[in-house]
Design goal:
The chain is mostly helical and 191 residues long. It has 7 helices and no strands. It is flat and about 85 Å long. The chain starts with 7 loop residues before the first helix and ends with a helix.
Length: 191
């Protein structure tokens, strides 16, 4: 068995690649071992937050200036100062409305999760029902909410109940789809 010498060009390439590898490892070790300095207001770590805040503040100032410079009507696009005054003067009413909105949203989410979970269990145990109902759930998903909203407002007397029904409807399909995907994955796993 004869030993073939390694060509000089290949040897140089191997040495070059090995040196790059060592430099990369050194850089990674230096990066990982580097002491993190405590964040200050002027540190690089906090700059994106400060920049974002300043950009948003600048946009509000620009909005206010353009509102007055262009003599816009307040009912078309109220200036930020008017919005802040309205929030301050109607704070109690707005918080009451916010609570109603949060309550309806959470109830709708719970209802859609429960309905979707029950439907996924039925789909899991009956392939026939799954194949029969899946087109219905897909049609319900692609139906725009704006097309269903007038019908719901006719069928339901209460605004809150109608709002609840529409929210359950809009969050039902994503939940049922996820549960259905999970049950199909479980079916494919060997017991």
């Amino acid at each position: 068995m004869s030993c073939n010498p390694i060509p000089e060009k290949s040897l140089k390439n191997l040495i070059f690649l090995e040196s790059i590898k060592m430099k990369t490892i050194d850089l990674l070790q230096n990066f990982l071992n580097k002491q993190k300095s405590s964040p200050t207001l002027s540190s690089e770590h906090n700059m994106p937050k400060a920049h974002s805040f300043l950009v948003i503040l600048g946009l509000f100032v620009l909005w206010e200036i353009l509102f007055h410079a262009l003599n816009l009507k307040w009912y078309l696009l109220p200036p930020p100062s008017m919005i802040l005054e309205s929030i301050q003067s109607d704070f109690a009413s707005l918080m009451g409305s916010l609570w109603i909105t949060i309550k309806v949203t959470l109830i709708a989410l719970m209802a859609s999760v429960i309905i979707s979970l029950c439907l996924a269990i039925v789909f899991y145990f009956s392939k026939f029902i799954e194949r029969s109902m899946m087109p219905v759930t897909v049609v319900l998903q692609v139906t725009p909410i704006i097309a269903i909203a007038p019908l719901v407002s006719i069928w339901v007397d209460s605004f809150t109940d109608g709002n609840l029904n529409l929210r359950v409807f809009s969050s039902f399909f994503p939940s049922s789809y996820q549960y259905n995907c999970r049950t199909q994955e479980h079916r494919k796993k060997p017991s």
